[in-house]
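User: Structure with magnesium ion, tokens only please.
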Amino acid sequence: MMSSIDVRDRDPYPVDQFQINDVYRSDLTGILIPQGEIGDRVAQLATEITEEYRSNPDFYPVCVLKGAMRFFVDLLRELDLDVPYSEGIVYSSRYHGGPDSDTPAVEFFQEEHLAGKDVLLVEDILDEGYTLATLRDRVTDFNPSSVTIATLFDATPNREVELDPTFTGFTVPDAFYVGYGLDYDETYRDLRHLGILDPAIVDG
Ligand code: IMP
Ligand code: MG
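Assistant:
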């Protein structure tokens, strides 16, 4: 595993210091990682990934929908591989089978393109690990040359399935996060910072 920025001991920033839609402001207990810091870290990850895959035409980044969409686009824009490459998507929903379901629902798209590729699964947040462990196994069934994991956020303390991402943006403490693509019930994806959702909302 390469470097990760560990923000587990950080005190979240007060929400009133940030540009946030007023509809969202009262739902958040703080901002853990502001937009600019996310952007800088994405650029660092792009440098690490460029070094790893430079001149490799089989590089095949796969966006784990829907949460990783912003991360995926921002990351790919910063890559500089010297060769053309293709890209894929996969849809995964952990909470499809109810909140306690271990196995995420997975829907592939153009999965025949995975054969022979050096797949980079690009995920928003790695939590208990079930989602990426399942995706890695399901992708492996389509005979890629390699399967590697990049996650922007890693809630390491929550891990239940052993899984080490090769590229990690930030190591974060246990909380429910929203923003920069992460949602709660399809809301808050458009919040530009990584915010901490008030537990009163998560617990109903
Ligand atoms: P895991 O299977 O427990 O590792 O959960 C990973 C999946 O659950 C990710 O793809 C996310 O979509 C979702 N998830 C986990 N934690 C959070 C969170 O704090 N906010 C939003 N989504 C989350
Ligand atoms: Mg996700």
